[in-house]
Design goal:
The protein has 21 helices and 21 strands. α6 (165-177) links the parallel β6 (156-158) and β7.
Length: 584
């Protein structure tokens, strides 16, 4: 085994700083981008990067972001599109705090990200290089900086010694990329970053010898048990949300569904898990079907339905196949299953398809074919309802969001990417802007609004030939750090198209109150504490950064406004369509 690192460290090498070995380790482990919001704690890294540029050494590409929410979500978007986790660099406890919401979202999405944060210098009186030299170094040292993001990481650590930089990065990278993947957090004390690494202390940690651990298939007898249940089933159902994170898996989901005559539903979709034009696709509300199904599969789904509103068939037999079957980071998860398998859904589904084929009988094929006819009819009926919902354009100042979303869909190519953060219009976006190609849909997996803007930038960075469109409500737009978003889009040539569905409020807040207190005082007084400022000019925010802005109030102008936005997008400018839908 060759343990020589690309640093070429030998007993005669000149001492380099920990920052040098940190940067080299990032390159060695495939980090292509550093998404940065920098501070006084990063001086040793900035100095080392300048030295590397003078020497003509390759560096990870640096993307400077005016806000950490943009940086973290952009890193996440790139990782979602490529599968390759990237690194972000933020400023001590303050930058960590600003990163926490994005870390929540990326953690729930199981996206590999290395978040590195400086740690305020600890030394004051002993003259150590990198010690405290300004006011903020005294006030930016909390008792437990990592506690800010600890609930949202797989691993957290502090670089304790200069010569350990390569070892620590090797560990961080292997943990974040191991299944189930997710964010990790590393703190970097300024004194340690500035300190030299004596050559005799160095040891190589090449990526080839520190690989992540990936999920596998499972024992044939476990798969055969599920196959036997499916072959005997009269009304099978598959529910999924994030199987499509692997772009090869949706084809297997559909193959199994066609083979068994099984309906496939998604709940809180994170990715495209099956083609929307597949006759087996049953939409985004599995609850009614779970009440009738006799055999069910949960495949890569965190919440298959809401139990409060769903009465699952008590005689049904359910199996779970999931990258994270035990839901190790959810304190409570009580969905009943008769079989649970943790593994790679691509491999598990391939095993299951083979097992079903091995025991299939002519009688099974006949029953599956009969179910397929019913599924085809149900799919066609559902599609008619979707089209009917988009038929009415709405009124001036109250555009029908379904009509608008359908118009956007008509203007997009199959390979264009849609990010759905429509919140109360989430299902409208899903239904009216269907995505069939794997990798062309990203939904909100967590609960932190402001996810889609930065993520769209990262997806665009990874897929420059695709248009990237994200849908938000006006409430979400505020959370998206829009000035930071459009500044980065312009500076790094990653134009995106934003569609703001503005109902001047938080519909989710109002609806939640009505669910709990349908005839309560809030209902009687119409006071829901959910109205936001009216007559905001969101298009002007985008225009301030050179983007194209559209202010849309009349449904008669929908197609023309979309066309102008896409023209700007194709010319290399971001675009924002601010549409007034029915007010809250």
């Amino acid at each position: 085994m060759d343990l020589q690192s690309s640093t070429g460290a030998t007993a005669t090498s000149a001492s380099r700083s920990a920052s040098h070995h940190l940067l080299q380790a990032l390159l060695d482990h495939g980090i292509e981008y550093l998404f940065c919001n920098l501070g006084t704690d990063h001086a040793p890294i900035i100095e080392e990067m300048a030295r590397w540029r003078e020497e003509g050494r390759p560096l990870p590409k640096v993307v400077l972001c005016p806000h950490e929410n943009t940086a973290l979500h952009m890193a996440g978007g790139y990782a979602i599109a490529t599968g390759r986790g990237q690194a972000a660099l933020v400023h001590v406890d303050a930058g960590t705090a600003n990163s926490a919401m994005a870390m929540h979202n990326l953690f729930r999405a199981r996206v590999p990200i290395l978040l590195m944060a400086g740690r305020a210098p600890a030394t004051t009186f002993n003259g150590v290089d990198g010690g405290r030299d300004t006011y903020v170094h005294f006030v930016q040292e909390p008792f437990d900086q990592a506690s800010v993001v600890r609930p949202y990481v797989k691993w957290e650590y502090t670089l304790p010694w200069p010569s350990m930089a390569e070892e620590v990065i090797a560990r961080a990278h292997s943990v974040m990329q191991s299944d189930p993947p997710g964010p990790v957090y590393l703190m970097l004390p300024r004194e340690v970053l500035a300190a030299p690494c004596p050559p005799e202390e160095l040891h190589p940690f090449p990526a080839a010898c520190h690989l992540p651990v990936k999920a596998c298939g499972t024992q044939p007898k476990l798969i055969r048990q599920i196959a036997e249940k499916l072959v005997a089933s009269e009304d099978p159902l598959l529910v999924t949300a994030y199987a499509g994170r692997n772009h090869r898996t949706p084809a297997l989901v559909e193959e199994l569904a066609l083979l068994t005559g099984m309906r496939v539903c998604e709940f809180n979709s994170v990715y495209t898990n099956i083609r929307r034009d597949s006759p087996c696709f049953g939409g985004y509300l599995p609850g009614p079907f779970a009440e009738k199904a006799d055999v069910g599969l949960m495949v890569d789904v965190d919440v298959p339905w809401v139990p409060k509103t769903t009465r699952v068939n008590p005689k049904a037999w359910w199996a779970q196949m999931d990258l994270d079957a035990i839901k190790r980071d959810m304190p409570m998860w009580g969905f009943a299953t008769n079989a649970r398998i943790e593994g790679d859904s691509e491999l598990l589904l391939a095993q299951l398809i083979s097992a079903v084929k091995a025991i299939a009988t002519p009688e099974f094929h006949a029953r599956a074919a009969a179910r397929m006819k019913k599924l085809e009819a149900a799919h066609a009926e559902r599609q008619q309802k979707i089209e009917a919902a988009a038929s009415a354009p709405g009124e001036v100042g109250a555009i029908n969001p379904a009509y608008l979303c359908a118009a956007v869909h008509r203007a997009l190519a199959d390979h264009d990417v849609v990010l759905n953060e429509g919140i109360r219009n989430t299902n409208t976006v899903f239904e009216q802007v269907p995505r069939n190609e794997p990798g062309t849909l990203v939904g909100l997996p967590g609960g932190g609004l402001g996810f889609s803007a930065g993520t769209a930038l990262g997806v665009k960075l990874a897929r420059p030939s695709s248009r990237v469109v994200h849908f938000v409500g006006d409430g979400t737009f505020y959370f998206s750090n829009p000035t930071s978003t459009y500044a980065v889009a312009r500076e790094y040539d990653v134009p995106i198209f934003t569609v703001v569905l503005d109902n001047t409020g938080w519909a989710a807040v109002k609806e939640s109150t009505l669910r709990m207190y349908p005839k309560g005082r809030a209902f009687i007084t119409s006071e829901y504490a959910s109205l936001l400022p009216k007559d905001m000019d969101f298009a002007g925010v985008a225009e301030a950064a050179g983007a194209h802005g559209e202010r849309l109030t009349d449904p008669a102008n929908v197609d023309a406004a979309i066309a102008r936005c896409l023209k700007a997008l194709d010319e290399g400018r971001s675009a924002l369509l601010h549409a007034r839908i029915a007010p809250l």
